[in-house]
Amino acid sequence: MAISSNMLFGTLYFTFISAIILPAAHHHVQGKLTPNFYDEVCPQALPTIQVMVATAVTFKPRIGASLVRLHFHDCFVNGCDGSVLLDDSPTIVGEKTAGPNNNSVGGFDFIDEIKATLNVVCFGNVVSCADILAVAARDSVVALGGNSYDVLLGRRDSTNASRDDANSNIPSPVSDLSDILAKFEAHNLSAEDLVLLSGAHTLGYAKCKLFRDRIYNETATIDADFASALKAKCPKAVGSGDDELSSLDETPAAFDSGYYQMLTRNKGLLHSDQQLFKGDGSEIDGLVKRYSEDAGAFTEGFGAAMVRMGSISPLTGDEGEIRENCRVVNRP
Ligand code: HEM
Ligand SMILES: *[C@@H]1O[C@H](CO)[C@@H](O)[C@H](O)[C@H]1NC(C)=O
Ligand SMILES: *[C@@H]1O[C@H](CO)[C@@H](O)[C@H](O)[C@H]1NC(C)=O
Ligand SMILES: *[C@@H]1O[C@H](CO)[C@@H](O)[C@H](O)[C@H]1NC(C)=O
Ligand SMILES: *[C@@H]1O[C@H](CO)[C@@H](O)[C@H](O)[C@H]1NC(C)=O
């Protein structure tokens, strides 16, 4: 089919007008995220991430767990600004080697692949690394059987990182409820958000060294059969089997309510998990019980809680930058 001069003119005209009008679409009100941020500047962005995540999860389900966790570890450290993705450099002490992250978080190479692909399909550096984390987390949840939700977009990337803040702001698996709650409240997240977001532990695994104290603690509230099964692969001696993995619930590649069911049976893997259900009839216990019985309420609520977590102190408008490469700032 011949291309008519009218069509050609139409295309050129559209391109010309777009060049004038579209930059205005970049200029969002400070502090406001919106689900439509990339609709005009790169309509292929979200479908591209979705296909890449769905494909990756088919081959390696744990990548989905990694991506959900990465977004959490990004947001809890000075907001959802892609800071967790920065490598160490002469001017930056990155967050990757902070205690909760070192040899523990993953998915960086896959984020690089997404970013490089988007730089091509968007004809340039358009999608922020912080937004990629938010979308990839949602797409992982969906690929593993959870409900979808609209991700708010328009975050920009930090030009710095803070290992110290990663060490102090990300909750520890040996913390008690009061400490964990305080870390969530510091980001304006409620007890219900804590219970819902912890439901991410329906996915993935934890290392023996992070639950050893719990399974060998004579006075801990833990199901006896569950503890002895874990002892078989997680020996008591520090240094032996430290990195052996155990799944956080019985179905680590399915986004279901299995995690809450484990808690109500005193089969929480981490001390911090079981802190959400102590059998004391507290409000938090009640929430865990509710989600253990109603997978639909969990997966609906989870999406809404992820949107609240994803809204922690974003950089917007002219703040920060859109990194060309998620590992380094644009002008080091
Ligand atoms: C509430 C306090 C939390 C604590 C103390 C905590 C702690 C941990 C620990 C210790 C691990 C295992 C790490 C390892 O073995 O190296 C883990 C895994 C994981 N966490 Fe959390 N977490 C918390 C909340 C969350 C939240 C809010 C999310 C996401 C919304 C999340 C997502 C995940 C996922 C998906 C995994 C499995 C990762 C994998 O298999 O690679 N966690 N968490
Ligand atoms: C991170 O882990 C490596 C071992 O893989 C270790 O050599 C390094 O000291 C750790 N970094 C920090 C800051 O603890
Ligand atoms: C914290 O949450 C409350 C109630 O949900 C809300 O009114 C307030 O604006 C939030 N503050 C921040 C800083 O997000
Ligand atoms: C063992 O469990 C008890 C009761 O939950 C707790 O008070 C104590 O701190 C635990 N000890 C260790 C080493 O985790
Ligand atoms: C990082 O940069 C932001 C601005 O982009 C600034 O507000 C913040 O204070 C900086 N944080 C650190 C730890 O230097």
TrEMBL record:
Binding site residues for heme b: H201
Co-factor note (free text): Binds 1 heme b (iron(II)-protoporphyrin IX) group per subunit.
Residue ranges of domain Plant heme peroxidase family profile in the record: 32-330
GO process terms (BP): hydrogen peroxide catabolic process; response to oxidative stress
GO molecular function, one term: metal ion binding
Binding site for Ca(2+) 2: T202, D249, T251, D256
Catalytic machinery residues: H73
Subcellular location: Secreted
Entry's EC annotation: 1.11.1.7
Binding locations of Ca(2+) 1: D74, V77, G79, D81, S83, E95
Record-annotated disulphide pairs: C42-C122, C75-C80, C129-C326, C208-C234
Needed co-factor(s): heme b; Ca(2+)
First and last residue of the signal peptide: 1-31
Main location: secreted
Coiled coil: none
Positions bearing the site annotation: Transition state stabilizer: R69
Protein name per the record: peroxidase
Source organism: Zingiber officinale (Ginger)
Taxon lineage: Eukaryota, Viridiplantae, Streptophyta, Embryophyta, Tracheophyta
